[in-house]
Amino acid sequence: MEPLIAFRDVARIYGSGEAEVRALDGVDLTINKGEFVAIMGPSGSGKSTSMNIIGCLDRPTSGKYLFQGTEVQDLDQDSRALLRRHYLGFVFQGFNLLARASALENVELPLIYKGIPKAERVARAKRALEKVGLAGRENHDPSQLSGGQQQRVAIARALAGDPMVILADEPTGNLDSHRGHEIMQLLQALNRDEGITIVMVTHEEDIAAYAQRLLVFTDGKLTRDEAVKGHS
Amino acid sequence: MLWETVTLAFITITRNKLRTFLTVLGVVIGVAAVIAMVTIGQGSSAQVSASVASLGSNVLTIRSGTRAFGPPGGGESAPKFTLKDADALADLPQIAYVAPIVTGGQTVVFGNANASTQIYGTSADYLKVQNWPLALGRGFEGTEETAGAAVCVLGQTVRTKLFGTSDPIDETVRVKNVACQVIGVLAAKGAGSFGQDQDDIVLMPIKTVQRRLEGNKDVASISVALRKSATSAQGIKAVQAVMRDRRHIGLTQADNFNVTDMKELSSMLSGVNAVLTGMLSSVAAVSLLVGGIGIMNIMLVSVTERTREIGIRLAVGASSGQVLTQFLVEAIVLSLMGGVIGILVGLGLAYGASVFMAIPFAPSGAVVAMAFGFSALVGVVFGYFPARRAARLDPIEALRHQ
To answer: Hey, is the C-beta of A114 within 8 angstroms of any chain B C-beta?
Structure first.
């Protein structure tokens, strides 16, 4: 089976000469459809950079990035926006919800850019909110919701566009451990029941334990790639 | 999609009402100023055209000196006219009516009321030359003119000041120290081409004014009405010939008087009017430009404030074109709001001015449409740069922005 995501000798270099920083330095990796992958590593190891490249927010300086077998490393900004729009969903540490829009409007946002008409959009956004357990809170503003609930709205937003991959960048980083585990159970369920591929950056072992596979980055290189205990 | 962008723009704009108000105010002032200037200008042009049309027969005005307007430059040395000059003009076949005129400011008193006004010493034909009907009473009669009788005809403004609505005929008013019987009241004429009140006037026989008010035999100017059969060129030529002869001007010498064709004067006035309107409108247009810069400024601030929002939109799949459209539409909505309010305020101002200045209120659909289009253009031009800045943001940087 063709891997969903494949890096071929990917490097990402910032600056040049003396000030050159090799955030990623020749990384090869493949992620298959339906996997739940956790990425760990100390700060500056390249885990966020690889997330940004997988999420088509950034481009590799050299090497190839294949998404469903297609080389996407050289796409321009608008083509990458299309990839994000149709295949990717994002969950951030800081939730990144629109502060002055209701939960429903936040979840509708990716559907607006997909050009889905208002009525269908609302229906789909409501369904997504139901899936994350926020039915009945459609009209709440983010400020009226707890951190855990805000992250659920963010997950619903990522989910609403029917993505193949959800990219979660430290999704529990701003939550207490109880809420954090709830969020992880939700992501795990989405992976298991909906078949959505999940790639998650974290620096907590017990959060990473929800994934099936663990990638560890050190100094811009992929240094460990192993199955998580309890999954095989 | 576009409609949703417009709705979104409205929602965003109404979030910060004070800021929106102040931003829009710049455009409001610009558009209102342009609309008011152009509308008032058109009104006063219409007024001038109307006053040209109201001159039934063609009227020439003959003044001493070489200048048609302003203080008589070189005219000090030029001899004044006399009543004999007027009589000589009356003999010309091209001329229908002659009105020699002396004017002076005086206070007119009746009982406790008084009015500062212009006294016109002239002949009974003045009313015919000016094509000016009477509202009440009669004009001067032959003997009153030749004898210099103490009679007067009041303009409407003076009549209202002294008598209110009661009948002034046969009452006696005092002009300086002359007791004067009111024999008639002029019909209201309204504001003149310069916006002056033409009804602020009292007519008296010219001899009365010369003898009892001015104490000399000078005639300041002579107005003549040409016969229908005569063109103004013919009339001017005939008047010049007579006056050169009477004033003993040699063949090589220049005229020491001038003849103005009132119709020509009026068309010149409308020309001046157009230039003035154009100038004031361009000054007003500059304030529209300033309003546009205000919009650009606030849109730039808005892009910076909403960097994170832009990052989120880009992350969920907005193209740079969609972000550009969003901010451009916001700027256009702002400037169009300003445009619409400005048009209403401008028309209101022009209406007020037309009432105050007694000129016709002449709103023009074309000008309103142009102002609307121009304010949309301001939005596009000044919104584009901030919108492009938003569209070019790097999503990673934008998401990190606090």
So the answer is: yes
Q: Does A96 sit within 8 Å of B308, measured CB to CB? A: yes
- Write the burial class of residue B120 (CB in 10 Å: 0-12 exposed, 13-18 middle, 19+ buried): buried
Question: What CATH number should be reported for the domain holding residue A75?
Answer: 3.40.50.300
Please report the residues numbered 5 through 34 in chain B whose beta carbons come closer than 8 angstroms to any beta carbon of chain A.
15
Q: How far is CA B277 from CA A209, B29, B353, in A?
A: 79, 17, 14
A150: in domain: no
Longest dimension (CA), chain A: 56
Q: Which residues 36-75 on chain A approach chain B with CB closer than 8 angstroms?
A: 52, 55, 57-58
Helix (H, G, I), strand (E, B) or coil at A13: strand
What's the domain count of chain A? 1
Per-residue pLDDT of chain A (232 residues; tens, 9 = 90+): 789 999 999 999 998 888 888 999 999 999 999 999 999 999 889 999 999 999 999 999 999 999 999 999 999 989 999 999 999 999 999 999 998 899 999 999 999 999 899 999 999 999 999 999 999 999 999 999 999 999 999 999 999 989 999 999 999 999 999 999 999 999 999 999 999 999 999 989 999 999 999 999 999 999 999 998 765 4
Q: Which residues, in sequence order, are CB contacts of B149 under 8 Å at separation 6+?
A: B140, B143, B205, B208
Partner-chain contact B316 A96, CB within 8 Å:
no
Distance CA B332, CA B380 (A): 6
Residue A139 inside a domain? The answer is no
- Whether residue A178 lies inside any domain: the answer is yes
Min Cα separation A155/chain B (Å): 12
For residue A115, the chain B residues in CB contact (below 8 A) are 1
Name the residue facing A58 among B1, B319, B396 (closest C-beta): B396
* Per-residue pLDDT tens over the stretch B96-118: 899 999 998 899 999 888 889 99
Q: Where are the alpha helices (DSSP H) in B16-82?
A: 17-54
Q: How far is A229 from chain B (nearest CA, A)?
A: 33
Q: pLDDT tens digit string along B337-376?
A: 999 999 999 999 999 998 888 788 888 888 899 889 988 9
CA-based nearest residue in chain A for residue B394: A57
Q: According to the model, what pLDDT value does residue B251 have? A: 81
- Cβ-nearest to A78 among B4, B312, B321: B321
pLDDT for position B75: 46
Phi (first) and psi of residue B115, to 5 degrees: -140, 130
Tell me if chain A has a CB within 8 Å of the CB of B315. Answer: yes
**Does residue A158 form part of some domain?**
no
Q: Which of B4, B15, B320 lies nearest to residue A112, judging by beta carbons?
A: B4
A182 touches chain B (CB under 8 A): no
Residue A21, domain extent: 5-97+163-227
Contact between residue A213 and residue A183 where contact means Cβ atoms under 8 Å apart: no
Verify whether the Cβ–Cβ distance B315 to A113 is below 8 Å. Answer: no
Size of interface A-B (CB pairs under 8 A): 60
- Beta-carbon contacts of B272 under 8 Å, excluding residues fewer than 6 positions away, are none
Q: How many residues does chain A have?
A: 232
Structure tokens at A20: 């050159």
| Its pTM surpasses 0.80 | no
